[in-house]
Amino acid sequence: MREPLVNADADALSIVLSGGSAPLPELSVDVAARIERSMASARSAGTRRAYASAWRRFETWCTLHGHQVMPAHPATVAAYLVGAADTLTVEGTRAYAPSTFGKWVAAIADRHRATGHDNPCGHEMVRATLAGIRRDYASAGERPRNPRAPLLTSDITTIVEYSRRSSIGWASEVLERRDTALLLMGYTGAFRRSELVALECRDVRRDRLDGAHVRIRKSKTDQDGTGAVKALPFTDRHESCPVCAWVRWLQIVAAFDTGGRVAVIRMLSRALEFDSHICRGTLPAVEKRSPLFRSVRKNGNLSDTALSGAAVHAAIRRRATRAGYDPGTVAQLGGHSLRSGFVTQAFRNGADAHAIMRQTGHTTPAMVETYAHENAPLVGNAVTELGL
Questions:
Q1: In this structure, how many other beta carbons lie within 10 angstroms of the beta carbon of residue 147?
Q2: How far apart are CA 254 and CA 264, in angstroms?
Q3: How many CA atoms lie within 13 A of 194 on its CB side?
Q4: pTM (2 decimals)?
Q5: pLDDT of the residue at 145
Q6: CA-to-CA distance for 216 and 227, rounded, in angstroms?
Q7: What is the distance between the alpha carbons of residues 385 and 201, in angstroms, rounded to a whole number?
Q8: Local confidence band at 128 (pLDDT 50, 70, 90 cut-offs)
Q9: What is the DSSP string of 282-303?
Q10: Helix axes 170-188, 336-348, angle to 10 degrees
């Protein structure tokens, strides 16, 4: 006989117990826990973390102001949003963007639904308050955004060239090979940083005609894991060839996984000078399911776990700083600079939106055009045809 659901651990089954007018069936602890895990997997880990953080913030605010947290009244949520909209930074600018409010509302709604309560965010009071805040921001010209500045082809080649030239010692060369692969693969593939760090060695394979095929098993806009393939081409110059950069980093990964630091030092000491293409040579054997991009410790050792998105962000800023970019420019750079740079450069070079979408994976031209409006406003603009 199955163990009744009511004897299961309450915390583990909180989601399963919520809602529903039909009588609760008898479920074993294992089945109920499995249902909960499946429900949790319906959203990405990043979304779950963001929702949890937003909910904690709402809980703290309600406690501070004496409001009931669960179930929350629509007026409580509206007051919460208005208070945040009126919050200013020390410089006197709005502290939060309208998009942030939308994420908070989604998190509050999700928590109420998960616990079987009515969603206060669906009330007209909350919807109208949020719409009014957005209109107020737009009217005042205050819509806080911090878009990352694009890194164009000249930037990528400059940073990569300096990284190679300034590498001294085997540990420095290990880091250079990883960062160069990140830059060239991330740029030519128009990858999100989350896609880069999720890559495993099995996801990249060489194609004798195209260069390298990179399989994206799951992404921000493909949570069901349908997958997609991006091609990284062989290029004329070996210095900026993304396939060469991948092979050079793969050599490090294979050596370290085989013999640790000693094997890496031996491989680097025997490596030929990088003065021509190596992308069509013999590929090193690697563990297919191991992370492709990993942290590199100060002593040159590789970690066993995948690189974080924050580390990609930091690597780009660090390399740009060392290449001589001014602090103001570096502050505008980040992981998204590779993806936005691809789109911006492609527009400037005459590519149309649909050709760009083939690589970026955007679903509508309007999403791609946003980059052109912000970073290449004269491309395709009739103002250049005025004859002045």
A1: 14
A2: 9
A3: 11
A4: 0.71
A5: 56
A6: 5
A7: 49
A8: very high
A9: PPPP--TTSBSSEEE-TTSPEE
A10: 50
| Of 108, 72, 101, 62, residue with least CA distance to 84 | 101
Cα gap 135→43, rounded to integer Å:
30
Identify whether the C-beta of residue 302 lies closer than 8 Å to the C-beta of residue 296.
yes
Residue-wise pLDDT for 275-288, tens only, equals 999 999 999 999 88
Residues facing 296 on adjacent strands: 302
- Picking from 246, 265, 274, 275, the residue whose alpha carbon sits closest to that of residue 180 is 246
Residue 322 tokens read as 């060392």
Buried b (16+ CB within 10 A) or exposed e, 32-56: bbeebeeeeeeeeeebeebbeebbe
C-alpha of 306 from chain center: 14
d(CA 113, CA 126): 16
Which residue type is seen at 59? E
Alpha-carbon distance of 278 to 282, in angstroms, equals 8
Hey, what are 313's tokens? Answer: 């962000």
Two structure tokens written together for 268: 């680097």
Spatial separation of the C-alpha atoms in residues 295 and 303, rounded to whole Å: 5
Contact 190, 343 (CB under 8 A): yes
* Helix boundaries (H) for the chain: 29-40, 45-65, 74-85, 98-114, 124-140, 153-165, 170-188, 193-197, 242-270, 309-322, 327-331, 336-348, 353-360, 365-375
